[in-house]
Amino acid sequence: MISGEKKCVYCKIKRGELPTNLIYYDDKCFVILDIYPSQKGHMLVISNDHYDNFLVSSDQLSMHMIKVARKFSRKAKQKLKATAIKLVVNIGKDAGQLIAHTHIHIIPHYYPITEYSIQPNPQISKAEAEKILKLMSEVSNVHAFQNHNLDT
Which pLDDT belongs to residue 136? Predict the structure, then answer.
């Protein structure tokens, strides 16, 4: 295990050490709801393997993650009725990257402007997470994966 990997929040989620709202996973990445969403349905596409940022990930992994982000962006427009989507990749602390692990933010936006736009990123409620998971999840039994180790 790489030294940063041991303390990395996303690696802990993948190992099942932290609970999450899992929406999707495959052999290269997984998608979860952001615990402090900037908008309703704010999701994260996270690489399974630990890389500090998008620039050091392989081209193959980066393209796969973009493909997954596009898929869930389309789904957010359809299922969550988002009027716009923002894909964000922060690279480095000065750019706003809080967790040194390759990930892409999928941030749905809505018109008219919602309460999420004016709140300072409140933690997502369990009820709100469950509502979004019902619409977005591609995991057949999401609750079975709340503390599941994705490495197995």
Answer: 85
The reply to whether omega before 112 is within 30° of 0 (cis) is yes
Catalytic site residues?
A: 103
The radius of gyration of the chain from alpha carbons, rounded to an integer in Å, stands at: 15
pLDDT tens-place string over residues 38-87: 999 999 999 999 999 999 999 999 999 999 999 999 999 999 999 999 99
Helix (H) or strand (E) holding 24: strand 22-25
The torsion angles phi and psi of 109, rounded to 5 degrees, stand at -125, 155
User: By CB neighbour count within 10 A (0-12 exposed, 13-18 middle, 19+ buried), where does 15 fall?
Assistant: middle
Q: Domain boundaries in the chain?
A: 3-141
Tokens of 18: 């932290």
Q: Which numeric CATH code is attached to 3-141?
A: 3.30.428.10
Angle, helices 126-136 vs 59-79, to 10°: value is 100
For 107, the 3-state DSSP assignment is strand
